[in-house]
């Protein structure tokens, strides 16, 4: 496998607090890579920098072998890198189907009149079927449960045929059945060729789903390895337990 995403020396400070500290790691194409660490270790800040929602103070990012000099969420989305958020970002005033139509082109223009192509609608319905949301296609997204919103956001980011998907705590706050559902969809899309980088606090899920596992502490990578290697790593145990 080759590196699909390369992060080198990322630095981000908020006042006197260093959130990401000379952080470097790679995500290999074809992997389901986990990015874990204690609360405040810089995981989501790193996500936000990689996807253009925050500007790094220093460091470089390369995606698909090309340096991303000024990460922009829309441009990255079109180039094959998409993401979800801790709190699902959907358009609550639009229907479930309309959310996917917007996502297919990353523009509001896709919603109006003849600009909505038959192929976009067909593909959106196929994706809703995959996620078992077909019956909710005409519901306003605001009517969905918390877990269904998480699924809708996940389905939406897949509308761009991404090469790499960054999932920020995809199972946070959902019930065990929804966790199984989310895991199934991750595995299914991974088998279809999508690479994943996942921030997740459910360690049981991480250890059965992800390989490799990257561990951050105080904004820097302290370990990378297989699940079994990470579970027995003294530096990782110290970071989590503070002992």
Structure at a glance:
With 243 residues, the protein is α/β, with parallel strands linked by helices. Helix content is 35%, strand content 25%.
Give an overview of the whole structure.
It is a single chain. The protein has nine helices and ten strands. The chain has 243 residues and is an alpha/beta fold. It folds into two domains: 1-80 and 164-173 and 195-243, 3-Layer(aba) Sandwich (Rossmann fold); 86-160, no CATH class. Helix 3 (96-105) runs parallel beside helix 5 (146-157).
Give me the secondary-structure topology.
Layout (H helix, E strand, L loop, with lengths): L2 E12 L2 E12 L3 E5 L6 H8 L7 E6 L2 E2 L5 H7 L1 E3 L12 H10 L12 H13 L15 H12 L6 E5 L7 H16 L3 E5 L3 H7 L3 E5 L2 E6 L1 H5 L2 H8 L2
Parallel strand pairs: 3-8, 3-9, 6-7, 7-8
Antiparallel strand pairs: 1-2, 1-4, 4-5, 9-10
The number of E-state strands comes to 10
| Rg over alpha carbons | 18 Å
Unreliable stretches: none
State the CATH class of the largest domain: Alpha Beta
| Strand line-up in the sheet with most strands | 6-7-8-3-9-10
Percent of residues in β-strands: 25-35%
CATH homology-level superfamily of the largest domain: P-loop containing nucleotide triphosphate hydrolases
Helix residue percentage: 25-40%
Q: What's the overall geometry?
A: globular
Integer count of domains: 2
Query: Count of helical segments?
Result: 9
Name given to the CATH architecture of the largest domain: 3-Layer(aba) Sandwich
Biggest sheet architecture:
6 strands, mixed
Distance between termini?
Answer: 36 Å
Overall pLDDT, averaged? 90
Q: Helix- and strand-based class? A: alpha/beta
CATH topology of the largest domain: Rossmann fold
- What letter string, H or E per element, gives the SSE order? EEEHEEHEHHHEHEHEEHH
């Amino acid at each position: 496998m080759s590196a699909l995403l390369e992060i080198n020396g990322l630095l981000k400070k908020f006042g006197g607090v260093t959130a990401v500290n000379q952080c470097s790691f790679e995500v290999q194409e074809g992997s389901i890579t986990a990015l874990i660490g204690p609360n405040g270790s810089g995981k989501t800040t790193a996500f936000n920098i990689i996807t253009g929602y925050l500007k790094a103070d220093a460091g470089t990012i390369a995606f698909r072998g090309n340096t991303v000099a000024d990460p922009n969420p829309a441009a990255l989305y079109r180039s094959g890198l998409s993401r979800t958020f801790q709190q699902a970002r959907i358009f609550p005033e639009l229907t479930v189907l309309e959310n996917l139509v917007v996502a297919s082109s990353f523009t509001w223009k896709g919603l109006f009149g003849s600009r909505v192509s038959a192929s976009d609608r067909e593909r959106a319905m196929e994706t809703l079927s995959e996620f078992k949301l077909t019956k909710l296609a005409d519901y306003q997204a605001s009517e969905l449960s918390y877990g269904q919103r998480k699924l809708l956001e996940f389905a939406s980011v897949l509308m761009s045929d991404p090469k790499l998907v960054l999932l920020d705590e995809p199972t946070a706050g959902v019930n065990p059945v929804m966790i199984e559902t989310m895991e199934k969809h991750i595995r299914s899309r991974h088998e279809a060729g999508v690479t994943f980088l996942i921030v997740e606090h459910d360690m049981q899920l991480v250890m059965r789903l992800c390989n490799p596992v990257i561990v951050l502490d105080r904004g820097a990578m302290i370990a990378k390895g297989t699940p079994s290697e990470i579970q027995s790593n003294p530096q990782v145990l110290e970071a989590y337990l503070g002992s």
